Amino acid sequence: MVWNRSIIPRHAFITWIYSHKRLPAKVRRSKYRHQDTVCSLCHSEGEDDQHILFTCPYAQEVWRGLKDWWNLPILQINHSFFESMINIKGPKAKKSMTYAIHTARIYYLWRARNMAVFQNKRTPSHQTIMAIKEQVRNRILFLNQGMHKFQSYADNLLL
Fold first, then answer.
1. Structural domain tally of the chain?
2. Where would I find the Reverse transcriptase zinc-binding domain in this sequence (predicted)?
């Protein structure tokens, strides 16, 4: 799933790191040296990969914005993220686009976190949502030029 052609390589790489539980979030790094572990985006909980990507209020705002745009499946609480992705139903093209959206979401949430940590800049959630939409839209429309495999979903992407 991570290396699907519809996924932008830098998004795939960050998702691959996440899949191996190797994102250098504050809680993980605090095992090796003493440091603050509070989330850089919401300043309320410990910053681990699950918090940054799923439970942080910032991540949930991004999720809601993307769910309004593309009918994303509800992730199962008792399954891992990747088990939930594998269980997506529907045509292959729709699955590929859903994978692209989810990996772009992981990439841009990690990017927003890094902007907060290293540049002390908070990226508004609507800006993150717009960036995800633009990246996925451009990738899918580019791939659609030659194969026309995503033709039936192109109109939904342009919304």
1. 1
2. 1-63
pTM of this structure: 0.84
Residue 46's DSSP bridge partners are 38
Tokens of 34: 């003493």
Condensed to tens digits (0 to 9), the pLDDT of residues 19-43 reads 888 888 877 777 777 677 899 999 9
Domain ranges, residue 100: 9-157
As a whole number of angstroms, the distance between CA 8 and CA 2 comes to 10
- Domain assignment of residue 89, yes or no: yes
Of 99, 159, 107, 98, the C-alpha closest to 132 is 107
Percent of the chain with pLDDT over 90: 40
DSSP characters over 41-67: TTSSSB--HHIIIIISHHHHHHHHHHH
